[in-house]
Design a protein that fits this description.
By secondary structure, this protein is an alpha/beta fold. The protein has 15 helices and 17 strands. The protein folds into two domains: about 1-55 and about 360-405, Urease, subunit C, domain 1 (Roll), CATH 2.30.40.10; about 55-345, TIM Barrel (Alpha-Beta Barrel). Helices cover about 40% and strands about 20% of the residues. The strands form two sheets. Strands 1, 2, 3, 4, 5, 14, 15, 16 and 17 form a nine-stranded mixed sheet that branches. Strands 6-7-8-9-10-11-12-13 form an eight-stranded parallel sheet.
Length: about 425
């Protein structure tokens, strides 16, 4: 496929006009301002379009699409323990499968090409991701409340089985990470065992960190350490890790996260909706920490429109610092794309570059809110909408285009998700 005379966001995240981008197989093989001599087959006219790397959703819980709108206007701890956990106790494999497909459909509609998922029902999630054509770093979320041996638990067995069955599956589109749900849902020994196992197999780690002030302060009272220091003392960050939220971390925590090479996934809208707080992004940038963007779940966010998330990521630090110059459009777009790919361990993804995977999205810029184009980077971050995405491609395969889901029967997915939700509610 050849994109002809199209505006692109290049590998340095600068705008270039009248470019030619050739895709062969799953790779970008040609990027130039000159028409290629070789034949790439189908030609796409780039008039009024922008080609850019697809978004990477750095922290998500896809099956929680079943809980969209369930448990509104509640504090995080009440929301979890009074609504979400009781609902999740009734989940079925079929419900998780269709909810994951629903979330994958929503992701591709809004230009997300890859997600980092923390949940369970790994067989069903892997099947849904494979069917959808999306990419995902899947992890079996671990909670362990008692003093029993974690590695003998059914959770550990499911985690190990998922890694052995699915790591590298779907032609490499699926990567299996390990995942500690959080400090407050595990014991020190279970966290230590998980850290040791993760390091022994060379896997990556996902973990919730300091999402709320209550969580942060209670950890300090319990262990005389912040959650970051506590998790680091147990070896959680001894492998490449993504720490989600990090709203209440302290200066020493940032030093540890930088030293350990931990990526931080900021979830602006979820944190606002649950009144968890606002992550201090400028201080993370000052430390040189890799920052990514996540939606969290449709239960704590209600929508996976990544354009909304990017805009909020860029705006909130300006309010908090009183400095309108912090967070440039380029920084926000890098957090939404290449930084997320780096956090997932996908080194050949995240930007338009010859040799990289063809994970591309095309935006319609021929709409009123994208004109005039004084600063197209600024327009993408502050003016563009998720509905402006007209094509989503993963590994050179078009998954969504102009209202058509190429890999999914969207009507069936919606029907089955609604059916599963009603069945669960009837049992609660």
């Amino acid at each position: 496929m050849l994109f002809k005379e199209i505006t692109i966001l290049d590998e340095n995240f600068n705008i270039k006009e009248n470019m030619y981008v050739g895709v062969r197989g799953d790779r970008i093989v040609y990027v130039s301002n000159q028409m290629p001599e070789e034949d790439f087959g189908e030609v796409r006219n780039g008039k009024g379009r922008l080609l850019m790397p697809g978004f990477v959703n750095g922290h998500a819980h896809a099956p929680m699409g079943l809980m969209r709108g369930y448990g509104e206007n509640m504090a995080l701890q009440d929301w979890l323990f009074k609504k979400i956990f009781p609902f999740e106790d009734k989940l079925t494999s079929e419900g998780v499968y269709y909810a994951t497909l629903l979330s994958m459909a929503e992701c591709m509609r809004f230009g997300i090409v890859s997600t980092s998922e923390m949940y369970y029902f790994m067989d069903e999630m892997a099947a849904a991701v494979t069917e959808s054509g999306m990419k995902s770093n899947l992890s079996r979320s671990i909670s362990h409340f008692d003093d029993s041996d974690f590695m003998s638990s059914y959770r550990a067995k499911e985690m190990i089985e998922a890694y052995e069955k699915y790591n590298g599956a779907a032609e490499g589109r699926i990567i299996i990470d390990m995942s500690l749900h959080s400090e407050y849902t595990s014991t020190p020994e279970s966290a230590r065992q998980l850290a040791e196992y993760t390091k022994s197999i060379g896997a990556r780690m996902q973990v919730h960190v300091s999402e709320t002030k209550k969580e942060h302060e209670e950890c300090k009272e319990k262990y005389n350490m912040t959650p970051v220091k506590y998790l680091n003392s147990l070896g959680i960050f001894d492998t490449p890790s993504t720490a989600a939220h990090c709203v209440w971390i302290e200066e020493d925590d940032r030093d540890i996260l930088k030293e350990k090479g931990v990526s931080i996934c900021v979830n602006p809208i979820s944190n606002l909706k649950l009144a968890s707080g606002i992550c201090d992004i400028p201080k993370l940038l000052d430390k040189g920490i890799n920052i990514t963007i996540g939606t969290d779940s449709a239960a704590s966010n209600n929508c996976l429109d990544f354009m909304e998330e990017i805009k909020m990521f860029a705006l909130l630090p300006k309010l908090v610092t009183g400095d309108p110059t912090v967070i440039t459009p380029k920084q926000a777009l890098m957090a939404a794309t290449v930084n997320g790919a780096m956090a997932q361990g996908r080194t050949d993804c995240g930007c338009i570059k010859e040799g990289n995977k063809a994970d591309l999205i095309m935006l319609n810029t021929d709409v009123p809110w994208m004109h005039p184009k004084h600063d197209l980077l600024g327009n993408i971050v502050y003016a563009a909408r998720g509905s402006d995405v007209v094509m989503t491609m993963v590994d050179g395969r078009v998954l969504y285009e102009n209202g058509v889901y190429k890999t999914l029967d969207i009507e069936k997915v919606i029907y089955e998700t609604e059916k599963a939700t009603k069945e669960i509610l009837a049992e609660i």
